[in-house]
């Protein structure tokens, strides 16, 4: 069973950038497709981005062109680079793989 720990969240102004990380242990991420989801207060958890074992990426329409998901199998870590951030990107960001979830990292974008 893979364990996931997110980090890198914080407070950023609108238009700024942030990179969040998801470090895995207990298994190698090279075995899995990896994903990022987010949940804003009072809203359902929603898909943000995913990356397959062969590094094919998919994005929600709301983040396409602004966010980039990438993986470093040597570091057993997946990243989400977030540019041109908007206040509506404010949420707790969660990493997932093989039905495992991390505890999330808070991203807050001020206007």
Structure overview:
This protein has 111 residues and is an all-beta fold. The protein is built from no helices and eleven strands. Strands 2, 4, 5, 6, 9, 10 and 11 form a seven-stranded mixed sheet that branches. Strands 1-3-8-7 form a four-stranded antiparallel sheet, with no helix packed on it. It is globular. The relative contact order is 0.33. The mean pLDDT is 97.
The number of distinct β-strands equals 11
Q: Determine Rg (CA atoms, Å).
A: 13 Å
**Secondary-structure class:** mainly beta
Report, as a whole number of angstroms, the end-to-end distance.
40 Å
Helix content: under 10%
Topology as a string of helices (H) and strands (E): EEEEEEEEEEE
Give the number of helices.
0
Task: Write down the overall geometry.
Answer: globular
Low-confidence segments, given as residue ranges, are: none
Give a short overview.
The protein is built from no helices and eleven strands.
Descriptive keywords:
seven-stranded mixed sheet; 11 strands; mainly beta
């Amino acid at each position: 069973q893979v364990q996931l720990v997110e980090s890198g969240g914080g407070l950023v102004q609108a238009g700024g950038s942030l990179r969040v990380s998801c470090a895995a242990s207990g298994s190698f991420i090279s075995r899995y497709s990896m994903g990022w989801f987010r949940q804003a207060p009072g809203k359902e958890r929603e898909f943000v981005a995913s990356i397959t074992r062969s590094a094919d990426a998919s994005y929600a329409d709301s983040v396409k062109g602004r966010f980039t998901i990438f993986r470093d199998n040597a570091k057993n870590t997946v990243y989400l680079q977030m540019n041109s951030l908007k206040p509506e990107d404010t949420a707790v960001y969660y990493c997932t793989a093989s039905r495992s979830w991390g505890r999330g990292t808070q991203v807050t974008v001020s206007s």
